[in-house]
Amino acid sequence: MNRTTIIAFVLLGLAVIIILATMFLVFRTTKEAATPNEGTTFPTSGGFPSGFTTTSTVTIASKDGSSIEVSDFIHNGETIEDVVNPGSYVLAGDLGYCLVDGTCPVAADTDRFSISYDQKSQSFGVALLKEPLSEARLEAEAFLTSRLGISKQQLCTLNYYIGTPYWVNERFSEGNLGFSACTESVTLP
Amino acid sequence: MYRLLAPLLLVLLLASALPLPAQAGMPLFDPDWHIVPDPHDFDDTCPVGAPLGFAGVLVLIQNLMNAAVSLGILISVLVIAFAGVLWILTPTNPENHSKAKKVLTNAVIGLLIILSAWLVVDFLMKTLYDADMSGFGPWNTILVGGEYCIVKNDKVQGLFARGISPVTGGGGGGGGSASGPASVGTGRCSPSTILSAAADGGYTLTQAQANTFSCIAKSESSCGTRISGATTPSGRPTSAYGMFQIVLGTPDSACHSLNLPVCTAAAQRAGWTGTGNLNCENAFSGGRVKRGQEALARACQAAAANISCNVSAAACLLQRRPNFGDWTSDVRSSRQQACINTFAGG
Q1: Does residue B152 lie within any of the structural domains?
Q2: Among B142, B166, B187, residue at a domain's last position
């Protein structure tokens, strides 16, 4: 075997190694892409509007300082805990982040609004995420009345903030828009 | 036999090497990569296509260097392949043999010079500018400061503006959409919550600053209710997260990178096992998660979702730009500007 033949075989060997390395990289990347990430949902007991079960009630503070009895919306199999903010819960929409292991907990599945609850201040936060905002607000109200087991008028007595971020609607992004049945309600497009 | 073997080898080598540049993240092979950067990709407050500021020019220089290195590596590979083929095709011709050897040697030396020049620049810049930096990487990331874009200043005051006191009780006229009523938030974005959250991260805010932040939080994230999903005016997704929409991925040493102990602690609640700084700038590029950095990106997003971390990062940014300028550069930020006018004196 002369020197040229040896070089030829060395080059051939290199080519095979490069092909194998490429295949390894390609398959490894494909596997990573299949790992659950932001677009993956974590299994819940069901989706909006009928994925909850609750029989018990809880008492929460109302705006005027008195208390109001509502269905247990935290332990209804649908609401999820905001693990990085202890005492906060998400009733509808996703958390806004995924856990490091790739699972992305999602509460009631909707992209039109997001509802959270802060146990410390006993207040609800509602973000309207799609135009027309008036329709999104009505849907959010329907969701809350069904989960809390209260009327639209009773919604007005809750501690709540309902708004929309500036990147959804700049004009209505400042201030509490109010639920539609309440006196402080803002007329929305 | 050799005449058949050589082309086969060349084709095999080139075909197998083709996917490698893309896999290795060589910028020239990334379809989303441009030599002239869009400052909006680095700073969401910059309008799309805005002129480059100082930091933007540094990114441009970095891109030119990356392109040159990528091109150099590509040419070296082709020259080495050519030398190998020349060697195989003319096994008995000593002249071509020595020519092939010379080409091969020069190509390898050239490649070594390219790569070592890169490492020398990297080492020198890190030593001169920031001794705490370790490891190899794009050298311009250590150059903190400066603006990514140049934005026209529409708020220039008149020569005697400071000497004229505003007339009170004038009915709030004039000023367009930014002069509307502004109020502080309640619940999780109340001024008291913000003061307390900033203190968790070691920052002390004044009451006026807390009130301003409280008001801004309503427009930025509906009082912290919707912390992700922000888009640019043209509808592109951004890497802004949390109550104050902190843009992750903008290179800096603390604020945008969430290099704060309170943020590391928050990420650990979401399963992050690291203990030091998060260095979130390593996980994002132009509003997107970098390939291979998915776990770090998730840790950063989870940390940014934490109120104490986000408020601390916002307070960190406020220390650098006390005029709340990080929240008013977007063309849609009239409500945020109204908050500043009302609570921070404009």
Answers
A1: no
A2: B142
For residues B317 and B194, state if they share a domain. yes
Mean pLDDT in runs of 10 for chain B (346 residues)?
Answer: 58 56 56 75 70 79 81 86 81 78 87 82 68 53 60 45 32 34 84 93 93 92 86 78 87 84 94 91 79 90 94 92 87 88 83
Q: Which residues pair with A69 in a beta bridge?
A: A59
| Residues of chain B positioned with their CB less than 8 A from the CB of A19 | 12, 16
pTM over 0.80: no
pLDDT in tens, B184-207: 888 888 999 999 999 999 999 999
Searching chain A, which residue's CA lies closest to the CA of residue B308?
A85
Contact criterion met (CB < 8 Å) for A37 and B291? no
Q: Print the domain residue range for B30.
A: 2-142
Domain count of the fold of chain B: 2
Rounded CA gap, B331 and A169, in Å?
Answer: 12
Closest among B344, B331, B335, B343 to B44, alpha carbons compared: B331
Percent above pLDDT 70 for chain B: 72
Predicted pLDDT of residue B181: 72
Among B114, B142, B170, which residue terminates a domain?
B142
Q: Are residues B12 and B105 in the same domain?
A: yes
B138 and B183 within one domain: no
Minimal CA separation from B128 to chain A, in Å: 35
- Burial of B194 by CB count in 10 Å (0-12 exposed, 13-18 middle, 19+ buried)? buried
- Residue-wise pLDDT for B104-121, tens only, equals 888 888 888 888 887 787
Tokens coding A168: 């959804």
Element at B285 (helix H, strand E): strand B284-285
Q: State whether B138 and B183 are in the same domain.
A: no
Co-location of B197 and B53 in the same domain:
no
